[in-house]
């Protein structure tokens, strides 16, 4: 029993250290994930994602002409979108 | 987390919320810290979200994670796009957050901070969040149909017509009232006027940059625009200190009103990419940044509230607007508690982006919580001001007089001491010639915000910059609403006129564009003109009118929601929407009755018209009052009709005369759940 305990202690310590390391390394990952999410939210709010989808849909390269067509396509939708008080 | 810890955590949150609510409700005679309001709000929102919205999700709406949403079924990469829930949340919040939650609480602070704060918290958790959530879900289940279409299909043709008229009316009155706020904030203010004037060439420059130089780089362009706007604020200081330039940008209220009317017409007729889109981006950028900054400022500074919890104006004799707490506090604060306008957003773009049904809870209920938090911050910004200063800024000349000494004496006689010298020092500190009679809420909010910001960053030396930053933020916000709102109104009018004569319905036909733009601009321009000519300051009549319209629209939305819940066969849960509906009916109908028929000329439109007629006033002013009374009366009658029609429809279903069936899109199993599992 004591042998088992003696053998288990370093293993447990190793496991705890690994868990601790995993937790520590998870913090920057969570921060990066949060920033990525924030960037995605901003890109959606500011129609950058919509433009990207438009380019992918039409298999186009970004250019002044492509952007003009995108804006024309979105003009009706954007104009009809109510903004709250 | 183990269950016992979860239970203890929620008990602790509830107790903390109750303690904070008791503190703000029962504290008398001493100033309290603003954090009590924040804690009360956050704890109540947390409990409301965790338990009440969960109950609504499970029992009332029975959200189905296996049911495909229109974003998935109709995905076209353009209007219907399955989107990450947090992205939809941000998008939805950016669309619902406007100047309303900032202005309404500032105006309602005349009653003290308590009535407004309690209404914001309770109204949001039990009314506004519920409305936004259920309308969003019902729209999702109907392929993203609008409120008007749902009213028509679930209640009847009249429902659709009433919703249409209410929406158009609210847009017109909203634009008139908010334009008046800008006029009152910018009149005789060369600094503010210059800064706002500069946002127009900046927006055009952004439009060209975005279109020609860096296509699609909106965030980068918005940052560039923001830097230029900040430069314009510094430029405004120079303008205000240079007599020759200051004279050019020192404008009277009528001149500003005419310029805003011309601006509204031009913005509605010009191509979107040139002015509207870049301004919209710039405004959103500044809005999100400033709201975040204000939240940080309040938490970091933890200011004390100088406004008492209740003032003597609970009796209805308030100088900011006349009327008792019930019903006027509840229509003055619409956005932030319950706002009918949100139902348009919840049945507009948002339902077409929702990926899974359960996500409507976060977006609908959670989005409104965020908006309500903004209203709490506005209440704090107004309440950190000395009450005497608050009333000096917000009271019209018709009540307190034109001369600084007279105004200070009148306000001091109400029990809120203020001196002319103190007001002069404050005006100088914020870079203005005077702060008297700046009705509308925006300048008071800007002074409060400048106080919070300058105590956090930069000290008193930069108070003027913060004040003008806040004014720029609000005016930019409002002007964006004016150009976007005029366009939305124009499209609605074109849709309706197209039924009479087809070419008028063509949205690209220039004569139609010019004609319908002119009609919409003339409609809200009339209200704006009425506001600047009103001896009571305009806000006294326009803001309650706007509040009534907005809450009547919320009544229509909750009426549609209640009917659908009954038709879903879930009548036993109908109180979830029926209670806020009954409350709003009581509030809006009582307020309308007062605004039309009250014998007090400061409250009743018709009594005011009679008073003006007896004094031999300008017939135009008399006509304005009668018009306001007529608009209120017509809207109330129409909403009463929709209530009756909805009531009959519900009765038919409950008594078994009609089959309980809704007009939902057929069930299709989602593929996204499988993808997520894989």
Task: Tell me about this structure.
The complex is a heterodimer of chains A (85) and B (678). Chain A is built from three helices and no strands. With 85 residues, chain A is mainly α. With 678 residues, chain B is mainly alpha-helical. Helix content of chain B is 72%, strand content 1%. In chain B, strands 1-2 form a two-stranded antiparallel ribbon. In chain B, α12 packs across α22, α13 packs across α21 and α13 crosses α22. The model of chain B has no long low-confidence stretch (mean pLDDT 91). At the A-B interface, α1, α2 and α3 of A face α4, α8, α9, α10 and α13 of B.
Layout of secondary structure:
The complex is a heterodimer of chains A (85) and B (678).
Chain A: H1 2-45, H2 48-58, H3 64-80
Chain B: H1 3-26, E1 32-33, H2 35-60, H3 70-73, H4 85-96, H5 100-108, H6 113-140, H7 147-154, H8 157-186, H9 190-213, H10 218-241, H11 243-249, H12 253-269, H13 276-301, E2 304-305, H14 325-332, H15 341-346, H16 359-383, H17 387-394, H18 397-400, H19 404-413, H20 420-429, H21 442-456, H22 463-497, H23 510-533, H24 539-567, H25 575-597, H26 605-614, H27 619-654, H28 672-677
Helix pairs in contact in B: 1-2, 2-6, 2-16, 4-16, 5-16, 6-16, 6-24, 6-25, 7-8, 7-24, 8-12, 8-22, 8-23, 8-24, 8-27, 9-10, 9-11, 9-13, 9-22, 10-13, 10-22, 12-22, 12-23, 13-21, 13-22, 14-24, 14-25, 16-21, 21-22, 22-23, 24-25, 24-27, 25-27, 26-27
Give the tags.
heterodimer; A: 85 residues; 2 domains; 3 helices; disordered N terminus; B: 678 residues; mainly alpha; Amino acid/polyamine transporter I; two-stranded antiparallel sheet; 28 helices
């Amino acid at each position: 029993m004591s042998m088992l305990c003696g053998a288990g202690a370093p293993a447990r310590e190793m496991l705890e250290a690994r868990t601790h390391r995993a937790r520590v390394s998870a913090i920057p990952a969570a921060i990066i994930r949060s920033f990525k999410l924030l960037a995605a939210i901003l890109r959606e709010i500011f129609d950058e994602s919509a433009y990207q989808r438009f380019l992918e849909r039409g298999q186009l390269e970004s250019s002044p002409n492509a952007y003009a067509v995108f804006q024309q396509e979105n003009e009706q939708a954007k104009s009809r979108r109510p903004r709250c008080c | 987390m183990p269950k016992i810890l979860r239970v203890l955590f929620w008990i602790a949150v509830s107790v903390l919320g109750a303690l904070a609510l008791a503190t703000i409700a029962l504290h008398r005679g001493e100033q309290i810290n603003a954090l009590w309001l924040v804690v009360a709000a956050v704890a109540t929102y947390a409990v409301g979200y965790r338990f009440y919205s969960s109950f609504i999700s499970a029992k009332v709406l029975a959200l189905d994670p296996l049911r495909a949403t229109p974003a998935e079924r109709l995905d076209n990469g353009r209007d219907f796009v399955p989107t990450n829930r947090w992205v939809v949340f941000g998008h939805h919040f950016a669309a619902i957050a406007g100047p309303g939650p900032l202005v309404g609480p500032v105006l309602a602070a005349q009653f003290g901070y308590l009535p407004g704060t309690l209404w914001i918290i309770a109204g949001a958790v039990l009314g506004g969040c519920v409305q936004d959530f259920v309308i969003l879900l019902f729209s999702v289940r109907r392929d993203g149909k609008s409120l008007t279409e749902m009213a028509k299909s679930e209640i009847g043709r009249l429902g659709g017509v009433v919703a249409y008229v209410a929406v158009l009316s609210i847009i017109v009155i909203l634009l008139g009232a908010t334009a008046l706020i800008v006029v009152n904030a910018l009149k005789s203010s060369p600094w503010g006027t210059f800064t706002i004037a500069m946002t127009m060439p900046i927006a055009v420059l952004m439009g060209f940059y975005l279109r020609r130089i860096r296509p699609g780089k909106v965030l980068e362009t918005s940052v560039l625009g923001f830097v230029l706007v900040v430069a314009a604020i510094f430029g405004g200081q120079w303008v205000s200190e240079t007599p020759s330039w200051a004279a050019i940008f020192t404008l009277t209220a009528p001149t500003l009103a005419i310029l805003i009317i011309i601006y509204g017409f031009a913005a509605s007729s010009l191509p979107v990419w040139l002015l509207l889109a870049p301004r919209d981006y710039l405004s959103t950028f500044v809005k999100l940044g400033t709201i975040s900054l204000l939240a940080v400022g309040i938490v970091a500074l933890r200011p004390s509230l100088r406004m008492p919890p209740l003032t003597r104006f609970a009796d209805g004799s308030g100088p900011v607007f006349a009327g008792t707490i019930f019903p006027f506090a509840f229509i003055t604060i619409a956005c932030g508690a319950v706002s009918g306008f949100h139902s348009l957003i919840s049945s507009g773009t948002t339902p077409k982006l929702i990926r899974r049904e359960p996500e409507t809870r976060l977006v609908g209920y959670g989005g409104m919580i965020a908006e309500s938090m903004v209203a709490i911050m506005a209440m704090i910004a107004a309440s950190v001001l000395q009450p005497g200063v608050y009333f000096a800024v917000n009271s019209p000349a018709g009540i307190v007089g034109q001369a600084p000494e007279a105004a200070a004496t009148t306000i001091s006689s109400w029990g809120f001491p203020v001196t002319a010298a103190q007001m002069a020092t404050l005006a100088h500190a914020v870079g203005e010639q005077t702060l008297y009679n700046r009705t509308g809420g925006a300048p008071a909010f800007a002074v409060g915000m400048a106080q919070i910001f300058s105590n956090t960053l930069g000290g008193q030396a930069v108070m003027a910059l913060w004040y003008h930053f806040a004014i720029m933020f609000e005016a930019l916000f409002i002007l964006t609403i004016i150009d976007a709102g005029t366009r939305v109104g124009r499209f609605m009018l074109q849709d309706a006129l197209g039924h009479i004569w087809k070419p008028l319905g063509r949205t690209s036909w220039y004569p139609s564009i010019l004609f319908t733009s002119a009609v919409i601009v003339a409609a809200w321009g009339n209200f704006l003109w009425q506001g600047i000519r009103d001896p009571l300051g305009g806000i006294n009549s326009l803001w309650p009118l706007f509040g009534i319209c907005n809450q009547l629209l919320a009544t229509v939305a909750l009426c549609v929601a209640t009917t659908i819940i009954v038709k879903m066969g879930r009548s036993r849960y109908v109180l979830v929407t029926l209670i806020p509906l009954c409350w709003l009916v009581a509030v809006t109908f009582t307020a309308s009755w007062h605004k039309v028929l009250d014998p007090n000329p400061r409250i009743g439109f018709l009594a005011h018209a009679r008073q003006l007629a007896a004094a031999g006033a300008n017939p135009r002013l008399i006509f304005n009052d009668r018009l306001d009374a007529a608009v209120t009366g017509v809207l109330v009658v129409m909403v009463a009709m929709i209530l009756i029609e909805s009531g009959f429809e519900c009765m038919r279903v409950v008594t078994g005369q009609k089959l309980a069936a809704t007009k939902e899109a057929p069930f299709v199993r989602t593929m996204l759940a499988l993808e997520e599992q894989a």
